[in-house]
Design goal:
Blueprint: E1 13-17, H1 24-31, E2 35-39, H2 46-51, E3 56-59, E4 65-72, H3 83-89, E5 95-98, E6 101-104, E7 108-116, E8 119-131, E9 134-139, H4 145-155, H5 159-173, E10 181-184, E11 198-201, E12 218-219, E13 225-226
Parallel strand pairs: 1-2, 2-9
Antiparallel strand pairs: 3-6, 4-5, 4-7, 7-8, 8-9, 10-11, 12-13
Helix pairs in contact: 3-5
């Protein structure tokens, strides 16, 4: 950190591994219109994290840490993961994260929740927030390198870990500067030509999705409607 000039404007994403105490750079990026992925571990205090006001608060951790297993929330709306990745994540080893109660505010989306031993909780492990044209992700545990090692041990690949990290980075880094619903067609058609209208619908990570049904109504010059 001491080698960086603190100018974040040229960048699309900052990954902050741990949150140092009373650090002006962390406050600077938190107030800048740049996406940030915070990784919270045993070098981060409850007090320093809560100062950032990210939409999640940790309460009564008292400097204690837990071993936290991942529990996948399959209702997560911001992007999709493959079924094989969901299954692999369930077998990942624990990360080290803050013990305590977690309070979530609005516009917080949980991809992974915390599982402590055999007990599944609603406490967040990996969450995403969107507010004031700024996207953040927070991983409440350190040691994600163990996930890559475990996956290679199980499957001889690291596809699931790569997909999780790539999708997270893609969602955070991409700018919301294009429409999520686009219609593609010619402006004019010949009288004997088949009329084809294509539509593309994207989720918040600009992945193509087909779940919602799309309807269109054509109206001719006699005001007659065709569905």
């Amino acid at each position: 950190l001491s080698d960086f000039d603190g100018i974040v404007a040229p960048y699309s994403l900052v990954i902050a591994h741990q949150i140092p105490q009373n650090n002006s750079f962390i406050n600077q990026i938190n107030n800048a219109p740049i996406s940030t992925w915070y990784i919270v571990g045993n070098q981060t205090t409850e007090q320093e994290f809560n100062k950032l006001n990210l939409g999640v608060e940790v309460i009564n951790s008292k400097g204690n840490f837990n071993e936290i297993l991942p529990k996948v929330n399959q209702q997560f709306p911001l992007f999709t993961l493959s079924e094989s990745t969901y299954k692999t994540i369930q077998n990942f080893p624990p990360l080290i994260g803050l013990f305590g109660n977690y309070q979530l505010k609005t516009n917080v989306y949980q991809l992974l929740n915390q599982k402590i031993g055999a007990i599944e909780t609603e406490n967040p492990l990996l969450v995403f927030t969107q507010a004031n044209n700024k996207k953040n992700a927070i991983l409440f545990g350190e040691g994600i390198w163990k996930w890559r090692m475990q996956e290679f041990l199980m499957n001889k690949t690291q596809d699931a870990t790569n997909e999780l990290i790539n999708k997270t980075v893609q969602f955070l880094a991409i700018k919301d500067d294009k429409s999520k619903f686009r219609i593609i067609h010619n402006n004019t058609f010949l009288e004997n030509e088949e009329i084809v209208i294509n539509a593309e619908l994207y989720n918040d990570s600009y992945e193509l999705v087909n779940d919602p049904e799309v309807k269109i109504t054509l109206i001719n010059n006699e005001n007659k409607k065709f569905n």
